[in-house]
Every structure is written in C-alpha cells, then in structure tokens.
Amino acid sequence: MKVIVIALIFLALQGVVFGVVIYQLYSRNNRKNGQNLVYKNQSSLSYSSFNSAKKNKMLIHGFGENGRADFNKQIKDGLLKHDDYNVIVVDWSTASNKNYTIAKNNAQSIGKSIAQFIDWAKLDKGYLHIIGFDLGAHIAGFAGKQTKLGRVDKITGLDPVKKGFNINQSATRLSTGDARFVEVYHSNGGKIGIMEHLYDSDKYINDGKSQPKCKTDKCSHDFAWKVYADQLKGKKYGTYTCETLAELDGRGCGYLPMEWHGEKTGISQIVTPETTKNG
Ligand SMILES: *[C@@H]1O[C@H](CO)[C@@H](O)[C@H](O)[C@H]1NC(C)=O
Ligand SMILES: *[C@@H]1O[C@H](CO)[C@@H](O)[C@H](O)[C@H]1NC(C)=O
Ligand SMILES: *[C@@H]1O[C@H](CO)[C@@H](O)[C@H](O)[C@H]1NC(C)=O
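Structure tokens predicted for Lipase domain-containing protein:
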C-alpha cells in the first residue's frame, strides 16, 4: 500500500497520471449533446451517431481549457454548418488544468493516447483532420507522429504555443510530416505563439503578431481560432500570398482568391476587415 502511494506520488510529480483523455462525438444528429466515445469500448462507438462513411474532424483545446471551451463550441458549430462530419471533441483537462510545465510535459503522452484512439476507431482509414489550438496544436502533431495504422490527412494548428518548444527540434513539436498537409494560422507570433514559417502552409492573420482591438496577447492568440471558426461559418476575408514574412506589412503580398487559400503552400496572409490594407 505504502509503495503504491509513493509510486503514485512519484508519477504525479512526473505528470504521468494526468493523461486521461475524454472524447465526445458531435454530428448533425446531435449538434448540442456530445456522446462519449470510450477507447476500446466498441459499443460506445456503435451506439453513437458515429458513421464511418463520414469524414472525421477532431478538435484539441489549449492550455488551461477543457472540452467545453468556446474554441470547441465555435469550431464544432462551424464544421457542422459546413458539412455533416463526425466531430470529435477531445478533453485533456486532467493535464491542461495543471500548471504549464505539467501540461507541456504531458503533451507527448496525451498525443500518444489520442494516436491509440485514432488507430482503435480507425479514424485515419477514411479521412481525419485534426484542429488544435495553442498547446493542442502540438498535441495534434504528437498524435499524428504516433499513429500506427495510417496517416492523418491534415492538421490545422491555430497559433501553436511557443513557450518550451525549440523550433529547431521538429520531433518535439508540431511539424511538417505529422499529416499529409500541415497548416498553421499565426495570430500572436513571437509572443504566445510561434512566428516562424515552418509548415506546409503558414497563414498569418494581419501581421501575424497582434490583432486589431486586442489589448492583451491572449486576445490576439484567441483570434486565430475565432477567424478560423468565422471562415467555416462563411465569412470571407482578404487573402494574399507572400514570398517572405517581411512582406506582411501589406506592401509585398499579392492577391490570392479565397478558394486558393486552403491548401496553398508557403506564406499567406489573411486580412480582417478591422485592418485597412494599404498596398
Ligand atoms: C461501453 O459503452 C457503453 C455505451 O456507451 C456503456 O453503456 C458501457 O457501460 C461501457 N462499458 C464499459 C465497460 O465501460
Ligand atoms: C507545477 O506543479 C508541480 C507539481 O505540483 C510543481 O512541482 C512545480 O514546481 C510547478 N511548476 C511551476 C512552474 O509552477
Ligand atoms: C535554431 O537554429 C538557428 C540556425 O541554426 C539558430 O540561429 C537559432 O538560434 C536556433 N534556435 C534555437 C531556439 O535553438
């Protein structure tokens, strides 16, 4: 008994016991109330509205958040407005509600749990697109790196967090190759988020650093998922293609039609209406 307690305390200090991940399924049949999908419980899948013929979307929240975060609600609603997907909302709050060090140190093992879930539910046999915000963007990458059956089709990282991640070490962060196509939206680059062009597609919202009407970095950071959700709900933004980050000031980027913007590789820019573009 004593040994077990000591072992648990040791594991807790290592952050290992915070890795419980909860999955909730939403679809057009159940837009409001998620259904629990339980790893290795086949009836939780078969009695849910999960349909293996539909495309899969998975949402992974950020540090300090949980499955009920506004990020999940807005993007889930946007996705279901757009098409009839299996939308799986991941809740990793057992780790994300601890301090940042613990949350970050658990990111790889949370990613591994998610990868095992993906393999078990065969999500990547059909089509799987993972959308992760903040620390959740790196967790999406860790899931993509650790799936065994197939490859995740697409990962969208919404302002992936910078703190504690070395951009030169692609194995320990969200990186290209974690999915067929990896795109990142940058909205608070150089502050909470990563600024560098590291992915198949890097989409910079306005200057990629600070957002109009935002007084705090958190506000600019959240802007990434807000713009993403609004796009899903049909809002159109000005989209541009750029050669270098230096062009984001608005003078160098060339007009790019919205339809093109989706899987355009390289650097592109999204200009929101609050910003006037003089170029
Ligand atoms: C498996 O899932 C079903 C349906 O959600 C549930 O009724 C059942 O209790 C679960 N079984 C276990 C062992 O958790
Ligand atoms: C985070 O929490 C752990 C365990 O409670 C503690 O050992 C560590 O010092 C904390 N780290 C920070 C940066 O607060
Ligand atoms: C990454 O590599 C570049 C080029 O080698 C170097 O200038 C930079 O300092 C490195 N950054 C980190 C965080 O190690």
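The mean pLDDT is 91.
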